[in-house]
User: Fold this.
Amino acid sequence: MALVQSVLDLIGNTPMVEVSQLSPNPRVRIVVKLEGQNPGGSVKDRIALAMVEQAEKEGVLEPGATIMEPSSGNTGIGLAMVARVKGYRLKVVLPSNVSVERRQLLEVWGAEIIESPGSEGSNGAVRMANGLHQEHPEWVYLYQYANEANPGAHYEGTGPEIWRDCPEVTHFVAGLGTSGTLLGVGRFLKERNPDVQVWAVEPPAGEMVDGLRNLDDGYIPPIFSQLHGAELLDRKTMIGPRESIEWTRRLAEVGVFAGISSGAAMAGAARCARAIDSGVVVIVAADGGWKYLSTGAWTDDLDVVVERAKRTIYF
Amino acid sequence: MPVEVRLPTVLRSAAGGSASVTAEGATIGEVLQNLVAAYPAMAGQVLTDEGALHRFVNVYLNDDDVRYLEQLDTKVSEGDTVSILPAVAGG
Assistant:
């Protein structure tokens, strides 16, 4: 597909690249799906388009409508691009402590930023957006955490693409986030081959930004519960900021310039490779490294970057 | 045997401000029960009144979420680290 009519036609069909030279186990291959190749720069372009098209189909989104959404960055950016192309207005509830490039990209596509307190993290953005939704029922609230078009985009797009390009996959590893990627891809791959194992990677939120007054403020995406995520996942492993950044750098050493959550997924893949005898591990690199250049993740002293990571939302 | 238990920010005040404490137990369930017994202010925050894992708490044995191991029956060995993390959104 060399010439398309709209940038939205370029969403999906991302390439996969082998990075087995980084595998700690010579009998385990590691393959990365480069979601940074999407036109808005991340995997979230897929769900942004799917949620908007679903809302159009249902008649909730009419020409000139305003969309409001909480996002730590990528979903907001994907929605900003889709909304700009399709002629909707967008308000993004964004924690104040995300990297500067995220704000800049939202501004590129004309989204309005509503700042939520950085100390409350992503949970705080979700809380504020839920409140705004009550006050402004005229704004269309796609709510990625509860929208089945989110895992649906991965069930219909990301999953089949992985199966088409790498049917030898034995393990799928991705970050948890909204859980949309894991739910959609995981379900698709297990339907094709029930032996495929699905691993979630959870980067613990920076201690300064977990945003909780008590544990009852915790949050589980409604789609994770509704679609029985706990039964789908085979394992969930925790990757700290140091490991995430170390593996982000290793990816760059083999030429793959990806974001910090991709480093976390890669660390999860390496852990998986050590735990199994042989296999093919597929990971999703959710975005490219561009939005993280200001964090010094590749160039500054590792200890300094790790310390900074505790105060910033990278995921 | 005693294992290290790492606490999230929201539970530290219940343990005199400590980020990490030790608790005894052969399984995750025993460790958490002993933790709550030693720091009663954590009651209801880690385990429910029925003794189940609180919905918004993720407990890791070293690097693995115990919900995908043997849950509260997951065995604990000397030198292991148990981490309690709150469930947070991403995206």
Q: What stands out?
A: The radius of gyration of chain B is 12 Å.
